[in-house]
Amino acid sequence: MDKRKTKDIVSMLQIKAALKSEVEKITTENFNILQQTIEKMVSDYNKMFVNNVNVSFERRGSFIMQLTAIDDTLIFSQHTNVFQFDRDHEAWQTQYVTEDPTRCFVGVINIYNFLTDSFKFDREEDLGYLVARVFINREGAFFVEGKRQRGMGCKNFGEKKLNAENWRKIVETALKYCIEFNLLVPPYDTVKMTDMAHMNAEILTSKTKTGKRMGFQFNSDDVKDN
Q1: Residue-range domain boundaries for the chain
Q2: Cα atoms in the 13 Å half-sphere on the side-chain side of 207
Q3: Average confidence (pLDDT) per 10 residues, the chain, 226 residues
Q4: For the residues of 77-119, what is the DSSP string, one character each?
Q5: Residue 175 — φ and ψ, nearest 5°?
């Protein structure tokens, strides 16, 4: 047995385990803050609505939350793993990470947009779109890749800590984008033919694949909007 190598491995595992534990803890804490923030938003909005319009919130387990606003449903998903950015990521160029490379280990919370009817009618083939993802490190520093999330991009990593106020900005920006991101009629050529098996499935379950944009792409110039 190579005692030195064994000792090095044990040391590395202990350091990595401690770092991972810190990141997981702060990410979970922020996921709970996110829940409180959305619940407050829902309450505020529903007090202002007329004509039976409302929004709703549901916690769907430890790592999933759902915000429903008429035709749009936002799913907030906390990933259970801790990640490190690849060496080409711009986060490594920030002074904040240069000073302490362990700051590049992050938890991730993804925000997806689905059609509300996808859940109402259990249409498992329907498409959802990633509209934002939030990266959080062990110090609570964060940045956002997402649609119209200006001022919260990677260039600002380390400048702010994630809190209820920042969460509300992130969620409302994502929600506003989704409301404006309308459902379009699919191109004729994509739906002009079908088969009996598919039609029978539609008749029995109403599972016609639907999404706001067929062929939609989350372009990098949109994702890294600072």
Answers
A1: 3-223
A2: 10
A3: 84 91 97 97 92 89 94 94 92 95 96 90 82 95 88 89 96 91 62 58 55 43 42
A4: EE-SS-EE--TTSGGGGSHHHHH-GGGGEEEEEEEEEEEHHHH
A5: -65, -45
Rg (CA), the chain: 21
**pLDDT at 97 (0 to 100):** 95
Name which of 181, 174, 175 is nearest 150 in CA terms: 174
Burial class (CB in 10 A: 0-12, 13-18, 19+), 81: exposed
User: What confidence score (pLDDT) does residue 186 get?
Assistant: 58
Eight-class DSSP state of 185: P
Run of H or E including 59: strand 55-59
Pairing mode, strands 72-78 and 83-84: unpaired
Which residues does 222 contact at the CB level (< 8 Å), separation at least 6? 147
Residue 131 near residue 77 (C-beta atoms within 8 A): no
pLDDT (0 to 100) of residue 221: 38
CA separation for the pair 104, 83 (Å, rounded): 8
| Helix, strand, coil percentages in the chain from 3-state DSSP, rounded to 5 | 45, 20, 35
Structure tokens that stand for 28 in this block: 């979970």
Cα distance between residue 47 and residue 57, in whole Å: 15
